[in-house]
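Re: the pair you flagged

First of the two:
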Amino acid sequence: MECNQKLKEISILIVIYNKKLEESSSFQSIINSLSLVDKGLNVVIWNNGPVSILDEAERYKEIFFEETLYNEGLAILYNKFIDKYPAEKFLILDDDSTFKVDFITKLLLSKNEISLPLIIAGECIRYPRYKGKIVNNNSVLNETKSLISIGSGLCISDKVVELMIKKYGSVFDENFYLYGVDSTFFYRLNDIDIKSINISGEIYHSLSKYEPESDKRKKFRFIERGYDLSLQLKYYPSIKIIKSVFKHTLSLLFNYELRLILDFLKCYLNGYHPRKKIS
């Protein structure tokens, strides 16, 4: 299906990795919602690898499909999506989020520049957080300072897109690959002084830090967090980040992980995640 360039009310992105379509709870939630929504939207499924799902995709004629089987960085994917599927609003979803059928219709009715859902994981609200405290009810905020959440469920207006591109050259920071893409978006958001943030709706989401993990997965998260902190220290330094880097480095020294210390130092000096493709 080819994108109709007429401006839609909302473009929706679901990034899938290492899953079949039917295994994505976000995809199932979108399919359940489509019958309640008119044609004023683009739904984009972006398969980030490693196996093609285009054969499955042929059954869904009303949905756009993209594939990058080499596991492209999330910031690059998000920016490509925003550029290719113009709309008044952009909604980003991971592949493991679940929401009610009226979630999309409420976003369409919202006049706010930013909309964030309550993120529920492990039967508790985990995000958004405002000034260090969890926002646990639907509300409207008049500033973005000290606001943080995850990317899944984030809905931004074309005005926010325009302001961020004007100030930073892109909406999401492409120096970050996986970890840090969400938090650095909110750092940027703080700088453009948006005063219309809607906290509404609920998304049930799988957050790895609240679920049992294998040692291999824990190691992966620790390494990716190290790259994230190295880049945040370079581009978005703060007392909080300095403390986190210090704590992470102490843990590495305690476990004699000198090679990782050098890897993180190299990442800091280069200014981008080691998996980023440099043309």
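Second of the two:
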Amino acid sequence: MIHYQVSPNRRVLLHTHEYAEIALIESGKGIHTINDDTSTLKPGDIFLIRPSDCHTMGASKHGIGLTNLAFPLSHAVNLENRYLPDDLRYFRSDEKLPWSTHLDDESYVQVENLFRNLANAVPEQFELERFLMNLFALLKKPLSALPLGHAPDWLHHACVQMHQPAHLAEGIPALVRFAGRSLAHTARELRKYSGTTPTEFINRLRIEHAAQLLCTTDKSILEIALDCGFENQGHFHRRFKDRFETTPLKYRKKSHSIFF
């Protein structure tokens, strides 16, 4: 693992690797070209780069600071095969572009701490795989499932705020309030940058939150549905089954059988 500085107005040569990479942008701005697709770089961006990905980056006048971790691909793939068999977003993805997202402030601090702990640990397979497991757990949060690309800051802010349970229960009115734009404009921009509607976005967050409550509390399923903003129980059960391919009750029983 290295902390790397790209000098102002300089560019890293186009390259591939024989290993996997995780890159966290810490400071500065620039551009990132990967597999012929170009995007801007800013602090908080994180990339999971596969060996086959061909990429380069160029720094603006202020340079770019990043942390880069390189490791054998097999370590990540083995963990994904075992613990994330149905989630193909990360190092097993066959999409043109590797997985990336922009971390909210809280997640950024958590990822920084993961890198710091790894840097201070004994260099052994256990520590690397512990780092990867903790990182995957963090990236599986709902926000990580909604990459917003070059979306404006106000939209990022509004989406982050919707992770608060009270805001999530309120739903679309809270999203519009934090966006500071009309519903029509908010919906148009959300669709543009994420490919989803406000209703789809909020329902997905609500279901993810409900799943968390099922695993970590003894609240009834009815209470959880109401806490998450679902007044119609039939609608809640349909949404939950669409997302997890099982009922809330079976999901709870399965989680308890694993952890207790």
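DSSP finds eleven helices and six strands in the chain.

-B.
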